[in-house]
Specification:
Elements (H helix, E strand, L loop, with lengths): L5 E2 L1 H9 L1 H13 L1 H7 L4 H19 L6 H24 L8 H4 L6 H20 L1 H9 L4 E3 L2 E7 L2 E7 L1 E4 L5 E7 L8 H14 L9 E7 L4 E6 L2 H20 L20 H5 L4 H4 L32
Parallel strand pairs: 1-4, 6-7
Antiparallel strand pairs: 2-5, 3-4, 5-6, 7-8
């Protein structure tokens, strides 16, 4: 059974993309092992991003100084030649721990696609170790770090909001800097709302006296490029109203909003083939003979032709 309703940027992103995907991700997956397994599938670009984030987090949790160039190179090689190769083999073998979307749905993977994922990881990690942001954080020392991939929550009205900051620290002038590592090359759909949500958390939890004492940094590692912005009261107010509006739209489709109970038929599918082709739950919406790798849901729906009319803002990595 679902717990109390909560909100996150990734939850909004899913809701805005496809109501049916949202239902499977946040309701059906709680009670159905097959839906839960499909939810955990990763695709090549997401896999590359996860590898980068996990490596950065592991490094920052266990190191207080910049490693030598040789040690950096050895770490990157180990991540690619041991970690990624091991993940790929597990996925090919049908592992329950890690499974790629491409293997689950027999999507051909060209050698160039694999090289792109590997190159994204190698390039991102090399740029991370060369970044001024890393040097600054290490020079300040972890006693000035406020968050490192911590899952935290706060409330906007009665709604509990969850978020995870890649890194937040207090600069020598007392200013809070919130860093978000990116492996993509450009602005995502929800970046502005995402970082404003971080700033809202920082103000709500007393890290700062006001939003003007916060800077956000989108650090695009693959490029590389760091985009730092000051935060304003207007940005934080917009984030608050955005969360309230988004949560209201989500709860409006619930069978019982107070109990956070949903039913499948209230969450229509989209009529967007490009989205459906890359969806983890494709098999549940469009079951085909010979495609199923596991038992399909008994209540798998017939395709609906209703289009998605959700909000179109922001993107969580």
């Amino acid at each position: 059974m679902p717990g109390p309703f909560s909100w996150s940027a990734s939850r909004h992103d899913t809701f805005a993309t496809c109501r049916r995907r949202y239902y499977y991700s946040y309701y059906a997956s709680l009670d159905d092992d097959e839906v839960r397994r499909l939810k955990k599938l990763s695709a090549l670009p997401l896999w590359a991003g996860s590898v980068v984030h996990e490596t950065i987090e592991s490094f920052l949790r266990t190191n207080d100084a910049l490693p030598s160039p040789d040690d950096r190179e050895a770490l990157v090689r180990s991540v690619v030649h041991s970690g990624m190769v091991g993940d790929w083999r597990e996925s090919e073998a049908g592992s329950l721990r890690f499974r790629l979307f491409e293997h689950e749905y027999d999507v051909p993977v060209e050698p160039e696609d694999k090289r792109l994922a590997v190159n994204t990881v190698m390039r991102s990690l090399k740029h991370f170790f060369r970044s001024a942001t890393l040097r600054r954080a290490l020079e300040l020392g972890r006693e000035r770090w406020l968050a490192l991939e911590d899952l935290v929550s706060f409330h906007v009205g009665e709604i509990e909001v969850f978020l995870r900051m890649d890194l937040a620290y207090r600069d020598r002038d007392g200013r809070v800097v919130i860093v978000d590592w990116k492996t993509g090359r450009g602005e995502g759909r929800f970046n502005e709302i995402q970082v404003a949500g971080y700033a809202l958390y920082a103000t709500e939890t007393g890290w700062v006296g006001g939003p003007e004492e916060i800077s956000t940094e989108l650090n695009y590692l693959a490029v590389p490029k760091a985009v730092r912005r000051s935060v304003t009261k207007k940005m934080v107010a917009h984030a608050r109203s955005f969360i309230e509006r988004s949560a209201r739209d989500m709860r409006a489709l619930l069978l019982d909003p107070a109990a956070n109970v949903a039913r499948l038929e209230d969450f229509p599918m989209v009529d967007r083939p490009q989205v459906c082709r890359r969806c983890n739950f494709r098999r549940l919406c469009f079951p085909r003979a010979g495609e199923a790798k596991g038992p399909p849901l008994a209540h798998a729906p017939a395709p609906s032709r209703r289009a998605d009319t959700g909000a179109r803002a922001g993107a969580h990595r």
